[in-house]
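Q: My labmate handed me this sequence with no annotations at all. I'd like to see what the chain might look like in three dimensions before we decide whether it's worth expressing. Could you predict it?
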Amino acid sequence: MLKAIIVDDEAPARSELNFLLEEVGGVEVVAEAAGVREAIEKLKEYPCDVMFLDINMPEATGLQLAEALKHLKFPPAVVFVTAYSEHALDAFQVHAIDYLVKPVETERLKQAIARVREQVALHVQAQKSERIPVEKGGKKILIGIDKIRFVMARDDYAYLQTDTDRYFSTVSLAQLEKRLDGHGFFRVHRGYLVNLSMVEEIESVSGGTLLLMLNGVDEKIPVSRRRVSNLKKALGI
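A: Here is what I predict for the chain of 237 residues:
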């Protein structure tokens, strides 16, 4: 299921696109925004695979937002949805996946979504190809980011857990958090960084905190109370 954010200063236009996406299927609209500034805030709160952007909006244009998104490590795909056809060339210069002219036809929307899926698949493959240097038994080893279940802090160093083993890293948890930004990891506790795609069960405990059970890991990961709300949003629960 693709996650999407709709950005348009006109509420009826957002509602119409939301309706069309429901008809097409396979896309969950996780947030809506009426302008660029709000869209940026929504993206921080609701990571998505694709943004459907209007171009002419108050304060800043959809083109300016698309230009800013290019600087993210794994930016969401951009599909422009606008009443004006004359901005098409500018749209593709900011790496837009598609350019839809209102009123949007269902078939054209399906084509755009298919292109988004292709880009998301490429990003997933890129993430899988990235590796982190660790140590085990006196040897230096490279492990794929997609293999990491969680990262645990130990003083100024860290341990990385996979489904089969635990590896030592001379890099701190804070540094690894920056390194893994954009790869689906979430800081659930001052001492733990978790791969959200590996979360299988969530257990509520007294005091309003949680414990996470991850795929292939026996250890339960604690979630600090102040991070519970943001974690639930990140997991869509």
